[in-house]
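Re: export button greyed out
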Amino acid sequence: MIKFEHVGLRYGIGPEVLSDISFTLEQGSFHFLCGPSGAGKSSLMTLLYLGRKASRGQIHMMGKDTGRLKRNDLAELRQKIGVVFQDFRLLPHLSAFDNAALPLRISGVSERKIKSHVEELLDWVGLGDCMKRLPATLSGGQQQRIAIARAVIANPRLLLADEPTGNLDDEIGMKLMGLFEQLNKMGTTILIATHSTQILDRLPHRRLILNQGRLDIFDPLAPNTSPPKMPEFLHA
Amino acid sequence: MPRSPIHHHIFSIAHRKNGYDIPLHTRLGTEFLVLLIALMTYLLLLSASGSIGLGHMANKWVSGLENAMTIEIPAKQTSPQEASGLVRKLEKIKNVNSARVLTSSDMQDMLSPWLGNDSSVLADLPLPTLISLELVERTPETTQAIQNLVNATAPDAIVDSHEAWLVDLLKLTNGLRLTALIVFGLILFVTSFVIAGAVRSRMAMHQRELELLHTMGATDKYISLQFIRYIFSQTLKGLAFGILAGFITFIGFALFTNQSSGTLPELEMGQTDWIILLSIPFLLLVIGTFTARQTVYSVLNEMP
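Workaround output, generated via the alternate export path:
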C-alpha cells in the first residue's frame, strides 16, 4: 500500500527534517504516528498526502512510484487519500455541507449522490442541524467534525489524520475513532498522528514513533516485542 | 445519459450559493479589475474605430484624386479655341478617359467660398484656364505623354498631378493608422498583463485554499476553471461598461461630424467594420480567459 524507502526531506537548503525513513504500511492497516513536537510528524504527513516531493528516496503508494507520476495521475492518487488537518482548514465561505462535499465535487460525483452522502454523514457526526451554517458560526469541535466528514466522505483508501480528536470531548472522540475503525475494517488504511494517551491505551494498533527525524515502529500486540525507548509524553 | 466531467463541474458550481470553491469574489479589488477592463475596452474601441475611420478617409481622398489631373494655363496665354484644341489632343492620349475646360461657372463655384457669388468680380480677375483630366489609369507613360503635349502647346502651363500632396496625405493617414494599430496591440498586451497580475494576486491571496484543493486531488483543470470563470465574469462586466462608454462617444462624434462644414469626408462604417468592432469584446474575452488559464497553470506548476 505505502512503502517509504530511505526517504529524506529538507526544506530549501536547510538540514534534513526527515532522515532515511523506511517503512511499509500494508493495505487495510491501522497505525498511529507519535512523536514530540518538532519530530517531523507534519513533514511525514505532508509526504504521505503528496503535498511535497521527497528530497531523496522513493515513495511507493498504491502500487505507484509517486516520483514518476504525471500531474494528473498524482491528482487522481490524492483523491484516494483523505486528510484531517489539525487546524481543520475549512473553507470559510462554504457551508458545512459544501465543505464536506468538496472531495466528491472534485471527483465529479453527481449532485444527487453528493446530497444523500453528505447529509447522511453529517447526521452521523451529529451535525445534521448545521449543514447550512458557515464554519465561523460553529464551535471548534463542530468544525473538526466537518473536517473529519470531509476527509472520509469519498471513502478514501488511505486516511491521514493529524490530532483528529484534539478539540472533541472524550465521547465524541471515541465515537470518531470508532468511525475510523469501521473504515479500516472496510479496507481503508489509516494513519493517525496523536498525542492522546487515552486513544493510544484503548486502541492497540501499531505505532510509528518519530524522534528527531528518525522512525521506529512499535507493535503493542506483537509477542516478545519490547517497545523502543518511548518519549516521555506518550506514557505508553 | 452519461455526464461529462465538465457537466458535473458546471452543475456543481451552479448548486453552490456563491459558485466558487475559492472565495474569489469576497475580497477587495474586484471593482478595480472591472474598471480596468472597461477602460481597456473603451480604448480598444476608440483605437480600432480611429484606424477604420482613417482608412476610409484615406481611401476617399485617394479614390477622388488618384485618377485626376489638372492643367493650369496662366491667364491670357491661351484662347478658348486653343484650349479646346488641347483638350481634343489630350483625349487621344492612352489612358485619358476625358478632358474638359472648366467653365466660368465651375470657376465661380470653386471660388465662391472666398469671393462670394458676385460673377462680376470674377470677370475682373486674371483667372487661369483650367483643364480637368480624368484618367483610366495613372501610369508614368501617360503622365509623361500629357506633360510632353502640354510643354509643346503651352510651355508656361503647369501640370498638377496632385501626387506630391496626395503622397504626403497618404503617408500621414497611414502613419496615423499604424499608430492606432500599435496602440490597439499595446492595449491588448496591457490587458493581458493586468489580467495575469490579477490572477496571480488572487492566487497568492488564496494560497491556503489552493493548497487544500490541491491536497484533495483537484486537478489543475478543476482549479483553473474557477479562475477562468471568475475572470470571464469580471471581463463581461468590464466589457459592458466599456461598450456603453464607447457607444456614447460614437453618438457624440456622429452628432459633431453632422454639424461640421463638410471639409472632412464623412465617417461611414461598413458591415466589415462593424464586425471588426463587435469582435473586440470577444477578443478581450478570449485573451482574458486564455491569460487566466495560462497564469493559473504556471503558478500551479510550482506545486508538486
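Chain A is about 35% helix and 25% strand. The button fix ships in the next patch.
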